[in-house]
Amino acid sequence: LDADEFRRQGRLVVDFIAEYYDRIDDYPVRPAVSPGFLARQLPETAPSQPEHDALAAALRDVRDLILPGLTHWQSPHHFAHFAATASNVGALGEALAAGLNINPFTWAASPAATELEVVVTDWLGKALHVPENLLFSGGGGGGTLLGTSCEAMLCTIVAARDRKLAEIGEERIGDLVVYCSDQTHFSFQKAARIAGIRKGNCRAVATSWETGFTLSPKALLAAVHADVAAGRVPLFLCATVGTTPTAAVDPVRELCAALSGAGHDDVWVHVDAAYAGAACVCPEFRNVIEGVEAADSFSTNPHKWLLANMDCCALWVTRPHALTEALGTDHDVILKDGAADGEAVVVDYKDWQVALSRRFRALKLWLVLRCHGVDGLRAFVRSHVRMAKAFEDMVRDDARFEVPVPRQFALLLRLREKKQRCHDDDAGRVINELNRKLLEAVNATGRAYMSCAVVGGVYVLRCAIGNSLTEERHVQEAWRVVQEQATVILAVVKR
Ligand code: PLP
Predict the structure, then answer these.
(1) ipTM metric
(2) For ligand 1, is residue 185 a contact (CB within 6 Å)?
(3) Is ligand 1 within 6 A of the CB of residue 149?
(4) Pairing relation of β-strands 202-205 and 411-413?
């Protein structure tokens, strides 16, 4: 580490990134490359000696070799998946954390980093209208910053599992059952498997068009009752606010009430709002997490829609003790450097997560909240919802298309011919195939990049409007691309 050299190199990198953002509109969103394209252009081994002016040379390679092979997630034409929003201060916060390069696994390992995380998770919780019982300031709960929603699910399942096994005996781990819907992100099943839940004991309760692909409390209870009757033990429910395929919102209040009304209020309820949690910054969307005060934990990814660059998942729990009981590691004398030995109660975040080491994520989130303010974040979310509404109007105005389920937030889907609303017959397969071709054609233009989902047997196109650089003109262009490609595809079909 050399401070003067760091200044010089830092300027090179900052200028490089700024130039990239200046020109990002010009790149095709998705690269036209085939597997192995990069390895073929790079040496087989690392250089044994530092190269001459290595950073400048490497940046040239980034420009010439790497950028042409990237999918440009920050492109204003990127409408696939959910956005990974970036901001100046999100990126610079990452740079600041990388520059300081600390490892705040315990309070003592970096007191200010831990305390900033405590403060900033409460700040974010209040900004999102998260109930008091999940916050430090509420007296019982508290939050942490992890990398991903999958980690949030894993840590909370493990906490629930250990609490339950302490009650019924460890030998009954094979009887534990977890619940979700068939729309829940696959990372939940993955987390459950890692936590030792048997593969056959993850119930993905079926959803339908009738309930808008939300989890029905009645269907959940039916599954719970069947498990109890068979001698199994209901452990955990993952409800989703903003599902990945359609942004459906599971009815959190009703699900919690159904469980407790049936005598199962010991089932740990986790609310996964990876994408849509950000919308709660706007009072008009707070209703989507109505009832979350009855849940045990809640998580959202500020890196998706709140300008905090990758990666950042905020997890709040009502009882941090349940997490630390399961994930705490008290026996390592090396980490006992005195700070937590006194009277004061401190947070040791290593006991809230899987690994010991951790990143200083609080810094960038703190910068985002300070530099944009809650009002700024509201304006950001609202601008996307407004653009999505405009896009929806354009889709509805074209008789060849339909919006298959009510639009939620900034997510729009299914562009498909209206005539046949058939799901699994031949005509249904044909129209699914047309839509698949349409998506392929749209993405091949490089002028828009969307993704797909299959809901209720129907193939739909997902257009998730939520990138930092996306403006109305980009949305209009995306719609033009879809219309043009649909015209070509339908003309071929008619021939
Ligand atoms: N939950 C939902 C609703 C998601 O949409 C996603 C990813 O898009 C995830 C969970 C997984 O998130 P992560 O990659 O942070 O684990």
Answers:
(1) 0.99
(2) yes
(3) yes
(4) unpaired
409 close to ligand 1 (CB < 6 Angstrom): no
Q: How far is the CA of 273 from the centre of ligand 1 (A)?
A: 8
Residue spans of the domains in the chain: they are 103-359
Q: How far apart are the first and last CA of the chain?
A: 67
Rounded CA-CA distance 270/292 in Å is 9
Tens digit of each residue's pLDDT (9 = 90 or more) over 95-151: 999 999 999 999 999 999 999 999 999 999 999 999 999 999 998 999 999 999 999
248 lines ligand 1 (CB under 6 A): no
Q: Contact at 8 Å (CB) between 74 and 468? A: yes
All residues at 6 or more sequence positions from 448 whose CB lies less than 8 Å from its CB, including other chains: 29, 77, 79, 442, 477, 478, 481, 482
- Cα(240)–Cα(214) distance, integer angstroms: 9
Side by side, which strands form the sheet with 411-413?
A: 411-413, 458-464, 451-455
* The pLDDT of residue 345: 77
Distance from residue 323's CA to the centre of ligand 1 (Å): 21
Fold of 103-359: Aspartate Aminotransferase; domain 2 (3.40.640)
From the alpha carbon of 151, which atom of ligand 1 is closest? 16
Q: Which residue has the higher pLDDT, 141 or 405?
A: 141
Q: Which of 187, 304, 312, 353 to mutate to test the pocket of ligand 1 (most atoms within 8 A of CB)?
A: 187
Query: Ligand 1 mean position to 148 CA, how many Å?
Result: 7
- Mean of all residue pLDDT scores within the chain: 94
- Nearest-atom number in ligand 1 for the CA of 188 is 10
Q: Count Cβ atoms within 10 A of the Cβ of residue 204 and give its class: 0-12 exposed, 13-18 middle, 19 or more buried.
A: middle
